[in-house]
C-alpha cells in the first residue's frame, strides 16, 4: 500500500492529536503541508511536527501538488469552504466532527463530496476507542441480545479554544461540541440501519455567561423501539468524563473511557505538566491516561480511514453518518425550544426498515413466564401470567425444575 501525503488544515489541539497519530501509527503517511489561520501558529506547528511547509492560504494548502489527502481540523464555520476546495481538487477528504453547524450545511458538504466522486470520511474518534470497538463487536455478535437502551455521557469543564464558545461560529453549545460524539456512539450500538425517529431534549445555560447551552440531556427514539440517551456538559469539574452504557434483552455493557480506568496517581504537584485532556489540576489525586491517542480512538480511526482509501471501500464512519448526526442535533435544538418531541428530519434515509423489538414468549405450565430468579436456597421463583385471565402469580419450584433455559431468540 502506498504512502499518503497529507494536507493538514488546522493547528489546534485536534491538529496535534491527528498529526501525532498519522506520524506515529502508520508511519508511511506524512503531513506535507499545514494550514493555520495565523503565521505564528503555523510556523510553531510545522516545527513541532517536522512538517516541510506551512501556510495561511487554505486553498493553496488544499491544492498542494504533492498531497492526495486533506484532513479538515479547522473550526466548524470553515468546514464547508475546506471541503469544497478539497472536492474541487479531486482529493480524499476527512472531516472532523461535527460535519456541519446544522443539517443543511452538513448536507451541502455531503453533496460536494459525492458529486465530485472523491473519498469522504467522518472523523468521529470516540466510535473508534478500543473499548468502543470491542463493545460494538460484542453487540453485533449478539452478546446482549436486542439493544433496548443506550446512554452516552461526555462532560468536562469546557472547550479549550475561544471560537468554541461562539455559537455563531460553531452552530451551538455543548450539544454541537459533545452531543455529536454521543449520538454517533448510540447509533453504533443500536445499529446504523435503525432510523432515529424523534427527539426530546432539555438544554440550559447554568454556569458560563454565554448565549448557548452549557448543559443538555436528550432522548432519541429509534424505529426498533430502542431509546438513546445522552448527557453533555461544559460545567463538569474534575476532568473529562466519558462513559457509555448499553442495555439489551440478554445483557449489559458499561464502559468508562477516561476517568477511573484503573490508573490513579497522587502527587503533591512538584512535577506539574500535562496529565490528560481537560484535566483541571496537576496535583492531588490524578487520573492519567496510559496512551491518550489510542484510548481516544485516533489510532484505529485513521487506520480505518486510510485502509478504506487504499482498499476502495467505505470507512466505518462516513460523511452520511455525520449528516445524520447533524439532523439529530437539529431536532434536539427544536425540542429544547418547543419542549416537545420533535421529528428527526432527513432528506434521505439510507438505512433499512428495522422491525420493532419483540421477544419470543416462554411458557411454563400453560402460562407465560414474565421473569425467573434463583432464590438463596437454590429454588427458582417465577412470575407467571395467565394468558386467558391476565392474572399474575408467583410460583416457586425446585432448582432443576425451574432451571434457566438458553436465551430465546428475539424478533
Structure description:
The protein is 29% helix and 25% strand. The model is unreliable at 406-411 (pLDDT under 50). The radius of gyration is 24 Å and the shape is globular. It has three domains: 5-124, Rossmann fold, CATH 3.40.50; 127-297 and 315-343, 2-Layer Sandwich (Dihydrodipicolinate Reductase, domain 2); 359-411. Strands 12-11-7-10-9-8-15 form a seven-stranded mixed β-sheet. A six-stranded parallel β-sheet has the order 3-2-1-4-5-6, with helices on both faces. A hairpin with a 2-residue loop joins strand 16 and strand 17 (367-374). It contains eleven helices and 19 strands. By secondary structure, the chain is an alpha/beta fold.
Largest sheet: 7 strands, mixed
Q: In whole angstroms, how far apart are the ends? A: 42 Å
Q: How many domain modules?
A: 3
- Category by helix and strand content: alpha/beta
**Which residues form runs of ≥5 with pLDDT under 50?**
406-411
Number of helices: 11
Side by side, the strands of the main sheet go 12-11-7-10-9-8-15
Shape descriptor: globular
Order of helices and strands: EHEHEHEHEHEHEHHEEEEEEEHHHEEEEE
Oligomer: single chain
* CATH class annotation of the largest domain: Alpha Beta
Strand content: 25-35%
Fraction of residues in H or I helices: 25-40%
As a whole number of angstroms, the C-alpha radius of gyration is: 24 Å
DSSP, total strands: 19
Amino acid at each position: 500500500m502506498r504512502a499518503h501525503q497529507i494536507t493538514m488544515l488546522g493547528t489546534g489541539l485536534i491538529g496535534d492529536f491527528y498529526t501525532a497519530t498519522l506520524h506515529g501509527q502508520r508511519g508511511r503517511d506524512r503531513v506535507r503541508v499545514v494550514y493555520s489561520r495565523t503565521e505564528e501558529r503555523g510556523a510553531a506547528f510545522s516545527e513541532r511536527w517536522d512538517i516541510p511547509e506551512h501556510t495561511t492560504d487554505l486553498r493553496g494548502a488544499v491544492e498542494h501538488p504533492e498531497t492526495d489527502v486533506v484532513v479538515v481540523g479547522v473550526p466548524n464555520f470553515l468546514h464547508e469552504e475546506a471541503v469544497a476546495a478539497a472536492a474541487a481538487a479531486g482529493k480524499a477528504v476527512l472531516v472532523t466532527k461535527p460535519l456541519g453547524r446544522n443539517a443543511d450545511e452538513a448536507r451541502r458538504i455531503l453533496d460536494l463530496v459525492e458529486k465530485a466522486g472523491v473519498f469522504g470520511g467522518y472523523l468521529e474518534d470516540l466510535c473508534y476507542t478500543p473499548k468502543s470497538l470491542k463493545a460494538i463487536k460484542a453487540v453485533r455478535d449478539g452478546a446482549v441480545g436486542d439493544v433496548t437502551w443506550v446512554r452516552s455521557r461526555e462532560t468536562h469543564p469546557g472547550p479549550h479554544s475561544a471560537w468554541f464558545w461562539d455559537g455563531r461560529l460553531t452552530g451551538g453549545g455543548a450539544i454541537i461540541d459533545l452531543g455529536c460524539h454521543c449520538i454517533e456512539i448510540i447509533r453504533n450500538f443500536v445499529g446504523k440501519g435503525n432510523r432515529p425517529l424523534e427527539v426530546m431534549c432539555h438544554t440550559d445555560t447554568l454556569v458560563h455567561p454565554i448565549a448557548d447551552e452549557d448543559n443538555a440531556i436528550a432522548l432519541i427514539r429509534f424505529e426498533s423501539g430502542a431509546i438513546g440517551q445522552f448527557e453533555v456538559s461544559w460545567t463538569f469539574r474534575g476532568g473529562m468524563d466519558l462513559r457509555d452504557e448499553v442495555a439489551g434483552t440478554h445483557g449489559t455493557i458499561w464502559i468508562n473511557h477516561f476517568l477511573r480506568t484503573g490508573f490513579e496517581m497522587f502527587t503533591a504537584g512538584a512535577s506539574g505538566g500535562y496529565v490528560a485532556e481537560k484535566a483541571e489540576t496537576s496535583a492531588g489525586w490524578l487520573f492519567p491516561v496510559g496512551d491518550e491517542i489510542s484510548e481516544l480512538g485516533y489510532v484505529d480511526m485513521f487506520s480505518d480511514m486510510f485502509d478504506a482509501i487504499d482498499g476502495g471501500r467505505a470507512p466505518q464512519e462516513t460523511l452520511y453518518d455525520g449528516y445524520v448526526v447533524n439532523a439529530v442535533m437539529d431536532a434536539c435544538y427544536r425540542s429544547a425550544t418547543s419542549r416537545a418531541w420533535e421529528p428527526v428530519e432527513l432528506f434521505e434515509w439510507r438505512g433499512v426498515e428495522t422491525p420493532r423489538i419483540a421477544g419470543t414468549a416462554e411458557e411454563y405450565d400453560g402460562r407465560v413466564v414474565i421473569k425467573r430468579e434463583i432464590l438463596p436456597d437454590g429454588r427458582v421463583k417465577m412470575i407467571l401470567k395467565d394468558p386467558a385471565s391476565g392474572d399474575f402469580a408467583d410460583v416457586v419450584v425446585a432448582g432443576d425444575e425451574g432451571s434457566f433455559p438458553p436465551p430465546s431468540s428475539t424478533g
